[in-house]
Structures are given as C-alpha cells and as structure tokens.
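From the shared-data thread, chain only:
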Amino acid sequence: MGSTGAGKTTLGKILKSLLAQKGYFVKHVEININHGFSYILTFFLVRLLSYRYVSNYYLSLRFRNSRFFCKYFQLMMLLDILYAPIKILTGILSFELFCKIFRKKGVIIIDEYYFTAIIEYLYYSVNLCQCLPWIAKTFYKVMFHLASATLKNIKRKVKILHLHTSESNSVKALRLRDKTNIIDVKHIRYKSIGIKTIIDVIKHYFCGIEIIKYRILCFPRDIVDIAKNLYIIIRNIN
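Structure, as tokens:
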C-alpha cells in the first residue's frame, strides 16, 4: 500500500521474479476498485461512448464526463461488492489451498487491497460527487469486514509494506506511466493521507501484523533494493 506512483506494482513484479527463481510458488494479485464485473462493464462503456483512454477505463469516464461518472460509480461499487468475495476466493484462499495440497512454499503479493478501495470510493463520493449514497456506506462496511477477516485468518504471515513518495514524484510517475497530463493532485494527496490513516487503524486492531515503511526517493533504484531486502525477510520466515 502507499502513495500513487510509489512503485507498488513494480515492486510486486520484481519480488515475484526473485522468489520464483528460488523455487517459490508466487501469485501477484491486484485488488482495488473496478475489477471483474465492473471492469467489463466500464470497458464496454468507454468503447461505446468513444471516450479517449486515460490512465484506465473508469478514469476515462471520470475525466471525460464527470456528471455521468458520479451516477455510474454507484453501480461500480455494487458490482465490486458482488465480485469481491470471488476475488478473495480465487486470488488468495485457493492459492493457500494449492500450496497446502502440494506442500510447496508460497507467497501471495497483494497490490493495494480493499482498504485502498475504500479510500478511492470515499474520495469520489465526498470530494468529486459531493454525496454519500447508501451503496457507498454498504461498500465500506462489506469491504472493511472482508479485508479484516482475511487479515485475521492469515495474520501470522502477513507483512504490510507502506511505500511513500513525495507528491511531485507521484505526479511525475503518473505522467510517465499513463502518458497523460490529466492529473488530479487533490486525489493523490487524499489517497496518501487515507493510506496512512488505514495503516494506523490496522496497527490498532490487528496485533501481530508487521508494517514495514519505505520512503521512495530514487525510482527504480530504491524499489530494486527493497525487493532484495524483502526476499531475505521472506526466506527467513520460511
């Protein structure tokens, strides 16, 4: 978890490669918003409305037609609620079962997680659309309990990485990654603060989960060094 453009996905891919080379079963799972059912619908909507692709499909709707997006994102939340248990089952629990059956060492790398999804939808609800519909409240409850239940189930083996970088680095990373100059700086700031708040909540409610903080100053050098350090930590656990 961490700042926008801090290198979370890049770190996950490098770490996956390192562990796979050493014989680990590794699964890299991205869990945030607009997955599964909602992703499929958003994809077809963007194509149907002929909106130019910006960053990702739901942001293409957001930046091209914010009024429509504020109505549509409630449906996105509903579809994410329906898909979340499937994502957990196929992405995490089935992998754990596979490792137990074949008696293999396994590592699951989760990019973002549903706590981040709560922050994202909260931003769109309150700051962009200036409303908090009933579906948003339902989404927060379901996602928080689902994410919490998963952490409680496997907490002895969970390490949460908090990657933080400066706001200017986040803006620069978004421009390079998404090849766009359409940047919502307020969103970047809101997410960074929200992540810190969520991590404080995790510290308070989930004893035994180690939270490791890294400040990203030089990308990608710092990411490569972190991946090597994490590999050593994981190897010592197993």
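The chain has nine helices and four strands.
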